[in-house]
Design brief:
alpha/beta; Rossmann fold; 8 helices; 7 strands; 32% helix
Length: 231
């Protein structure tokens, strides 16, 4: 079982390798990343402020900093170091602020501080995702944009990506019962059905404008939603 210190110890850098050649979800990660960046660029005027909460190594924050004032917030100092180096190489470091924080705690930002916020590959790692979404609602400007996602708790997508679980039958059975979460992550990660995800957004005060599904049409791996504060 992986312990909660994985996110701050530096070891999560090794676990989270979305562009890794052996990652069975590599193409899905890339497609989701392109969509997130494209939605921000389509809907947020150049020069706007963007919060990337739990943005890890800056896969979206670094390119967005070419056009926006981006705050990348993450628990891992190592992830932020990678993002800073990549931003320096890309020439976007001047527009990228790096902040180490716990996304599960109250955010150290003023009400209405951001034009847009990203919450991608994060909610499934939080013990209280509703609280994080409520904080994102608070720090967004009225009419601001939220782009968020979750992994699907319906485990049928496992059949399309068997390499994600390896070859041990006991691991498959355990992951299936846990909604697609590998045994070693079951104390830290929880996946959600689409209805649960949309209800979570509504309860935090967001109205979903559009959603995308990534993976098999018959059972997606991820749900991605674009939302705005509803009140």
């Amino acid at each position: 079982m992986i312990g909660p210190d994985v996110y701050v110890s530096g070891s999560y850098v090794e676990h989270f390798q979305p562009e890794g050649r052996r990652n069975p979800f590599r193409d899905l990660y890339a497609a989701k990343r392109r969509k997130v960046v494209a939605e921000i660029e389509r809907q947020v005027p150049t020069g706007g402020s963007v919060l990337d909460l739990g943005g890890g190594p800056g896969r979206m924050a670094v390119p967005l900093a070419a056009r926006y004032r981006v705050t990348l917030a993450d628990l891992s100092e190592d992830m932020l170091r990678i993002a800073g180096a990549d931003a320096a190489a890309a020439g976007t470091a001047a527009n990228l602020a790096l902040t180490q924080l716990d996304a599960g705690s109250p955010l150290p930002f003023a009400d209405g501080a951001f034009d847009a916020a990203l919450c991608v590959d994060l909610l499934v790692h939080l013990p209280a995702p509703h609280a994080a979404l409520s904080e994102l609602h608070r720090v967004l400007k009225p009419g601001g944009l939220l782009v968020a996602d979750v992994s699907n708790r319906e485990p049928w997508w496992i059949l399309r990506y068997p390499r994600a679980l390896g070859r041990r039958p006991r691991q498959w059975a355990s992951a299936w019962r846990a909604g697609g979460v590998r045994p070693e992550w079951q104390g830290l990660v929880r996946h959600y059905r689409l209805g649960e995800f949309l209800a979570m957004l509504r309860q935090a005060g967001f109205a979903c404008e559009r959603e995308w599904h990534y993976g098999p049409a018959w059972c997606p791996k991820w749900f991605l939603a674009v939302c705005r504060p509803s009140g």
